[in-house]
Amino acid sequence: MDEKYLMPTQEAGRKFVLRAIQGSVVMLNLLRFRDIADYSESPELMPVEPISGKHAYQLYIEHTLPFLTKSGGEILFMGEGGDFLIGPANERWDAVLLIKQNSVNSFLAFESDMDYMKGIGHRTAALSDSRLLPIIENNKV
């Protein structure tokens, strides 16, 4: 069975902090939705009727936006994915997001906000797999 990635590991978090990124950071999110959202880890958030993973992710976005904005972050882009033009033929992503944060510290503060964390179960229920790549602007291209 293929390994799935839904949350950062402690080692990945350590490497992210040790990069010592100065200034803003953009998070490239690649998302693969479940057909039916799985709320087994967060039954308190489960809707009355089953919903799609895409719908559950929309609930996550609605919950998250106030916390993201408060932390100085913003959604730069949100779009529908699909199959790669260049990449593995057996790999596809349903959605792509670019989220900008003013700094690594503002991102870490956002991610550890306890009120934000109360809604993260929508994200877990929604996704079958994901990737998160922190990127920084390079003005020397």
Describe the structure.
Helix 2 (53-70) packs antiparallel against helix 5 (120-126). Strand 2 and strand 3 form a beta hairpin. The longest helix is centred in the middle third of the chain and has 18 residues, at 53-70. It contains five helices and four strands. The chain has a four-stranded antiparallel β-sheet. By secondary structure, the protein is an alpha+beta fold. It is globular.
Defining traits:
141 residues; four-stranded antiparallel β-sheet; globular; 33% helix
A few lines on this structure:
With 141 residues, the chain is α+β, with helices and mostly antiparallel strands. It is 33% helix and 27% strand.
Number of continuous helical runs: 5
What topology, given as strand order, has the largest sheet? 2-3-1-4
Overall shape: it is globular
Oligomeric state of shown chains: single chain
> From N to C, what is the helix and strand string?
HEHEEHHHE
Largest sheet: 4 strands, antiparallel
Proportion of residues in extended strands: 25-35%
Task: Give the % helix.
Answer: 25-40%
Spatial separation of the terminal alpha carbons: 39 Å
Q: What structural class do helix, strand and pairing data support?
A: alpha+beta
Low-confidence stretches: none
Rounded average pLDDT: 94
The number of strands is 4
As a whole number of angstroms, the C-alpha radius of gyration is 16 Å
